[in-house]
Amino acid sequence: MLAARRWDTKPNPDAMLVLLHGLGASAEDLAPLAEAIATRARIGMRIVLPEAPARRVTIADGYPMQAWYDIRSLAFTEDEDVSGIRAAIQSVHALLDAETMRGIHPARIVLGGFSQGAALSLAAGLRYRASLAGIVAFSGYLPLADALASELAPEARRTPIWIGHGTEDDLVPVADP
Fold it and tell me: Residue 27: which domain range?
């Protein structure tokens, strides 16, 4: 199970927001956002900030950093770390399953992230066995896009998706040139 920071806005929350950090970042980087959401929440909500494991990252010359999976090229969808992405998807699914077992229905869970965390949110949310309340992706892309048509969970077709992206992002461009 992924290590994670958790906030409950009220006892016995019945909704959840999971936020996945980006490459080289940590759950702590999203803590101010989580705290701001928690202080404004009007419902009983659990906010979960999972922590990616440290691993060597190819585009960083093999330097170890927190990453959900290896990035081998800045052309993100080329030479993908298929086994690493699939393992990360399974880790997110295990987290969602554990929270569901604690009583939070998948239709009350929003899965989101930034950069690599956004990419993983899309990849995991679209392959999850149940429809989620939503997927929120900030400055990401869709890993394993070529396999999605055959792997898209039927329930995930009903999951609302919001994708936001800045126009000045040099690392993850809005569209391929």
Answer: 4-164
